[in-house]
């Protein structure tokens, strides 16, 4: 049976990864240089963590976070609102930098990677987890000797 060319498969294709990285770099450069004329957007330092294009490259989900800020505050909401107001202009900048037939629609989402990392660190610092890890290491050492 023929494979559907737009199927999700085992993960993103090389083309999706390349396009996503190009969009990420372009958006980062545009935001660093302040090419979007909006004081609300330019006063916030924004980190573009990842861009995930859809299989057909017509939609790109952009994961952003305020640099040094927390996601739970007003800064994150103000940042998302400003980015969404200027989606068309940002899409235009992306289209100029790319040679695709269609410029992808940009969808902005909060990047929660750093929050998940903090939660993982907190879990590993828990004494119950530390005890379990130490016990497992001791069990593996005994297995190697025996």
Automatic annotation (TrEMBL):
A Pfam family of this chain: RBFA
Gene3D superfamilies: 3.30.300.20
GO terms (BP aspect): maturation of SSU-rRNA
GO molecular function, one term: ribosomal small subunit binding
Cross-referenced InterPro entries: KH_dom-like_a/b, RbfA, RbfA_dom_sf, Ribosome-bd_factorA_CS
Keyword Cytoplasm annotated: yes
GO cellular component: cytosol
Localization of this protein: Cytoplasm
Signal peptide: none
Primary location recorded for the protein, binned into one broad class: cytoplasm
Annotated keywords: Cytoplasm, Ribosome biogenesis
Keyword Transcription carried by entry: no
Source organism superkingdom: Bacteria
PROSITE patterns: RBFA
Record note on quaternary structure: Monomer. Binds 30S ribosomal subunits, but not 50S ribosomal subunits or 70S ribosomes.
Family: Belongs to the RbfA family.
PANTHER family: RIBOSOME-BINDING FACTOR A, CHLOROPLASTIC-RELATED
Free-text function comment from the UniProt entry: One of several proteins that assist in the late maturation steps of the functional core of the 30S ribosomal subunit. Associates with free 30S ribosomal subunits (but not with 30S subunits that are part of 70S ribosomes or polysomes). Required for efficient processing of 16S rRNA. May interact with the 5'-terminal helix region of 16S rRNA.
NCBIfam families according to UniProt: PRK00521.2-5, rbfA
Protein name: Ribosome-binding factor A
């Amino acid at each position: 049976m023929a494979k559907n060319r737009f199927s999700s498969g085992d993960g993103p294709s090389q083309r999706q990864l390349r396009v996503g990285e190009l969009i990420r770099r372009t958006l980062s450069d545009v935001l660093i240089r302040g090419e979007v004329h909006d004081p609300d957007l330019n006063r916030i330092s924004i980190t573009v963590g990842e861009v995930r294009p859809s299989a057909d490259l017509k939609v790109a989900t952009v994961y952003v976070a305020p640099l040094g800020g927390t996601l739970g505050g007003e800064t994150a909401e103000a940042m998302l609102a400003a980015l969404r107001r200027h989606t068309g202009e940002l899409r235009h900048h992306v289209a100029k930098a790319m040679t695709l037939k269609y410029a992808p629609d940009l969808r902005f989402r909060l990047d929660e990677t750093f929050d998940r990392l903090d939660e993982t660190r907190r879990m590993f610092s828990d004494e119950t987890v530390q005890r379990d890890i130490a016990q497992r290491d001791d069990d593996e050492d005994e297995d190697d000797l025996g």
